[in-house]
Structure formats: structure tokens, C-alpha cells
Amino acid sequence: MSKTETIQKAMIAALKNKEQQRKEVLSLLLSALKAKAKDKKEPLTEAEEDAIIAKEIKQTKETLSSAPKDRTDIIDECNFMLKVMSEFAPKQLDEDELRKIVSEVIGNLGIENPSAKDKGSVMKNLMPLVKGKADGGLVNKIVSEYLG
Q1: Which of 8, 20, 82, 142 is the most exposed place for a label (fewest CB within 10 A)?
Q2: Do the beta carbons of residue 75 and residue 51 sit within 8 Å?
Q3: Of the given ranges (47-61, 68-82, 128-142), which has the lowest mean pLDDT?
């Protein structure tokens, strides 16, 4: 079952259980998924669904970080949205898993003395492996550490 179908079932369950706020978050997520599928004119792959969910989570985090501290209503709503959306988000790689993948990519490229000039080729080979599974900022930080 695709994530779109899973989210649709969860939204129907939220509607039946009279969980209005949860239904609204799931409806937002479902709308984003269906809009992308309509643009593409074919069903989304799991990776595409994951990318859309990750994008929605990122946008919500940005809204949360820019919300004034005295607007607890916005902060509470964003936190709830993140909690619901994260149920359907792809599992994120932790720092150790990411370091292992970066090390493997550097090894596969045959780079013996990694330096900053190798960053482009490392990132080009690394990103397809971790896209949607790791935060871009964390990936950049770890690659920079390896390349000194």
C-alpha cells in the first residue's frame, strides 16, 4: 500500500474519531501528494512520496522557527503538525549511519587524501544514497569534517 493510501485511510479514521486537527494535517499532506501525482500524470514512487512528506515537514519547521515566541497558538499547531507528519516520514539516518555511508562513498571514489576540492564529487555520489533520509545540513557538516 502506498503512503498516499495509508494517509488517506488515517484521514478517514481521524474523521470518524472526530479528530479535526489531525484530519486537517493529514488532508494537507494528502493534497500535496495528490497534486504532485496529478502534475506527473502517474502514481508517485515511494521515494517521491517520501520527498514530498519531507518537504512538508521542512516547511512546517521553518514556520515554527520563524514564529514569534509569544504566539503559542502557532507554535502548538506546528508542533502538532510535525508530530502527525513524522508518523509518515521516512526513517532518518542517524549521524553514525551517515558517517559510515560518507566513508564508503569516499572509499568507492578511491580518494586517499580527501580535501575540500573533492567535495563536489563526494556530494554527487552521496546525495542519491541519502536523499530524503538525512538532513542536508547534517550531510554537508559530516562531508566537510571528512574533507577537512
Answers
A1: 20
A2: no
A3: 128-142
DSSP string spanning the chain? --HHHHHHHHHHHHHHTT-HHHHHHHHHHHHHHHHHHHHHTSPPPHHHHHHHHHHHHHHHHHHHHHS-TT-HHHHHHHHHHHHHHHTTSPPPP-HHHHHHHHHHHHHHTT-SS--GGGHHHHHHHHHHHHTTTS-HHHHHHHHHHHH-
* Grid cell of 12 as nine digits: 478517514
Report yes or no: 49 and 4 within 8 Å, Cβ to Cβ.
yes
What's the whole-model pTM score?
A: 0.70
Amino acid at 140: N
* 144 and 119 Cβ atoms separated by less than 8 Å: yes
Grid cell for residue 31 = 493534497
